[in-house]
TrEMBL record:
One of its GO terms (cellular component) is plasma membrane. Belongs to the binding-protein-dependent transport system permease family. FecCD subfamily. Pfam families: FecCD. It is a multi-pass membrane protein. It comes from Marinifilum flexuosum. GO terms for biological process: siderophore-iron import into cell. This is Iron complex transport system permease protein. It is found in: Cell membrane. The chain crosses the membrane at residues 62-82, 94-118, 130-151, 158-181, 206-228, 249-276, 288-310, 322-339. One of its GO terms (molecular function) is transmembrane transporter activity. Keywords: Cell membrane, Membrane, Transmembrane, Transmembrane helix, Transport.
Amino acid sequence: MIHKLGRISIVITLATLLLVFLVLLNLVLGSIHIPLSEIKAILFTGEEVNRIYENIILKTRLPQTIVSLGAGMALGVAGLLMQTLFRNPLAGPSVLGISSGSSLGVAFVMLFTGNILGFTFTSLGAWGDFAVVFSSLIGAALVLALILFISHRIGGTLSVLIIGVMIGYLSSSLVSLLKFYSPEEDVYNYVIWGLGSFSRLATERAMMFGLITVIPSILATFLSKSLNLLALGDRYASNLGLNIKRARFLIIAFSGFLTAIVTSFCGPIIFIGVAVPHLAKLLSKTSNHFYLILNAALLGAATALLCNLLARMPGMEQEMPINSVTAFIGAPVVIWVIWKRRKENRLE
């Protein structure tokens, strides 16, 4: 037991140090290298600094870093909650169709409404951005409310999972129809939104986003006892006094909220929510979800920061779509974890 706690403490400490290191790299590296002394002066001491450096840090790199950290943390935790609830290693934050509902809301504004009104919402500047975020939140909230209602009334983890997947397919079908009948420019704007980005928020909004993703991610540790029991099976958990319906409702609500917020502000970010929980379990070597949630939060934030860094590596003229980077990192991680587990099982 002491050996396990010692290992977990080391893993969490190393994950925290890695997170701090990646935060610094995200602020320092880019098309222009900015020294740490300048960053310290800009963020903390208030000394006279290079105005170009100040604009780059405060208007671009700091917001991107905060959004990357918050989004990665939220998706890592949401993915762990879903994988435990459904006991499915491939379950992720989007498995309940919440990301699809969010995408449908954006498609309605960008493709359907824009087509009827005769202009594109991207031409409206800040109001267009607000309309996209608002419609995304509404779409995600409606799907989440439907899933929570089904979870409360019908029950049955498998039923909730199947209905969530069907909602995802239905949303994708409607989006495809909207794409088919929309002008090329609107479809292009929608596709760009769907590629995901951590650079859509200004500093003030990025800080708000950080608060509404980081705090719920940490509060998810209060679900650890329920998750520990659910991991043993519904019948066993029920015999130990767990209210299965209530626990399922809270887990779906937490995961759905985190997924909805990230998708609304960043677009549908793939693979982080699937890969990070596997990494957290492999490194922690524990089934206690209190530590798994903390580790998934730290590793999720670190993974998103690494992806953001790779998406805008020095020497690149344009920033790469974040989903192309997350898939490039996430897919090998999942394959490696599965291969390593099979190897360990054979040795046992």
